[in-house]
Design goal:
The complex is a heterodimer of chains A (168) and B (198). The longest helix of chain A has 48 residues. With 168 residues, chain A is mostly helical. Chain A folds into 2 domains: 49 residues, no CATH class; 85 residues, no CATH class. In chain A, helix 1 packs parallel to helix 3. In chain B, helix 3 packs across helix 4, helix 4 packs across helix 8 and helix 8 packs across helix 9. The longest helix of chain B is centred in the C-terminal third of the chain and has 29 residues. Chain B is mainly alpha-helical. Chain B has a two-stranded antiparallel sheet with strand order 1-2. The chains are: A mainly alpha (168), B mainly alpha (198).
């Protein structure tokens, strides 16, 4: 069993309000004399209240204005970090896409024997902007470039929209 | 326009919804915080000093408690709720501190270590230590110190202590009863020893 005294609450209230012992009846005082639990409560509460009163006069170091300023700084840093997170993610994604496209491009060039000059002349010639009949090798290349270009554009658009919505 | 909450023990400007929605601004202005700090800091420091037994640590944790208090979204209500919330932050910081170097439970911290720290903390004369209470507190476990101080020095109810410490109210009743009995026995021994010396 623990806390087994019916007068505990009444006594605790009296101690908390500072009514003990003068503000309490003779019955309660007589009860506390004979009750181990209640006398413990009185002894402990009075000791702690005394220590608490002593501590109220203690000099507390630290300036509230400095703390307030530091809190403001910390909060702003947290806000900046929150805002910067999607940008970091977008940058990482953009790097990943760029590296991937570069790797695909290098791999394809390596497989086709690195005919840079002929490939580039095909690109800039007006013929390359017309869709040739399927079956032609150059037309296939143009189509791949066109589709990948649109794909990258679409991805970038999604990213821009995402970033704009995050900032707002 | 700031709203003022007058339901608490002290009137403190309440959180302005428009200002609070901005992540880079604090929902309490500097003057209001200075007033709150002046009223609550001695009590919080006393709690941290008595429970940790280390004044330097108590000062560090107190500053961190106020910083987290200012950065967090505080509960509704007046200063009474703010104080309870602040004590909760300080209690969590103490627990984190005890867990950090040992990766163990708060209850595993040896009382002898804390008693030694207490002896060192007596050098600090800013808090006039009570001759009988301090040696008795030094022999209590950290959790018991927390509960005793919150219940008997701060006057918190079991439910409020449960909110601060994260323990169950029923568990607190039992722990507090045992802690009170233990410290009362130590205090009586101390009183008897003093009488014999006298």
């Amino acid at each position: 069993m623990f806390g087994g005294c019916s007068s505990d609450n009444e006594l605790a209230q009296a101690l908390k309000a500072g009514h003990w012992p003068e503000g309490c009846g003779p019955e309660l005082r007589a009860h506390v004399e004979g009750c181990a639990s209640c006398s413990d409560l009185v002894l402990v509460t009075q000791s702690f209240q005394h220590a608490r009163r002593e501590s109220e006069h203690a000099l507390v170091c630290g300036s509230p204005s400095l703390l307030w300023w530091r809190a403001q700084l910390r909060r702003r840093n947290a806000a900046t970090e929150r805002v910067g997170r999607p940008i970091t993610i977008a940058q990482t994604f953009a790097w990943f896409v760029t590296v991937l496209v570069g790797a695909v491009f290098v791999a394809s060039q390596y497989r086709h024997g690195l005919h840079w000059a002929s490939w580039w002349s095909e690109i800039i010639s007006p013929r390359s902007f017309h869709f040739l009949p399927i079956g032609s090798g150059q037309a296939g290349w143009n189509l791949v470039l066109l589709i990948s270009g649109f794909g990258v554009l679409a991805l970038l658009s999604v990213l821009v929209v995402y970033l704009a919505s995050e900032k707002s | 326009m700031r709203k003022t909450d007058t339901t608490g023990e002290y009137a403190i400007p309440n959180v302005d919804a428009r200002v609070a929605s901005r992540p880079d601004e604090l929902p309490m202005d500097s003057d209001a915080f200075a007033g709150f700090y002046q009223r609550s800091a001695p009590a919080l420091r006393a709690y941290l000093v008595r429970v940790s037994g280390n004044t330097a640590l108590a000062d560090d944790l107190m500053q961190e408690s106020y910083l987290r208090f200012l950065c967090a979204t505080r509960p509704e209500g007046g200063e009474v709720n703010y104080r309870r919330y602040l004590f909760g932050i300080a209690t969590n910081l103490l627990r984190d501190h005890w867990k950090r170097p040992r990766a163990g439970c708060i209850e595993d911290v040896p009382e002898q270590l804390l008693a030694a720290r207490d002896e060192l903390s007596h050098i600090d004369t800013q808090i006039d230590s009570q001759a009988k209470l301090d040696p008795a507190m030094a022999r209590m476990r950290p959790r018991e110190r927390q509960l005793l101080w919150l219940a008997h020095a701060e006057g918190y109810s079991h439910r409020e202590i449960a909110e601060i410490t994260g323990l169950s109210a029923a568990g607190i009743r039992l722990l507090l009863f045992r802690a009170r009995r233990k410290i009362a026995r130590l205090l009586r021994k101390q009183i008897a020893a003093d009488r014999r010396k006298a």
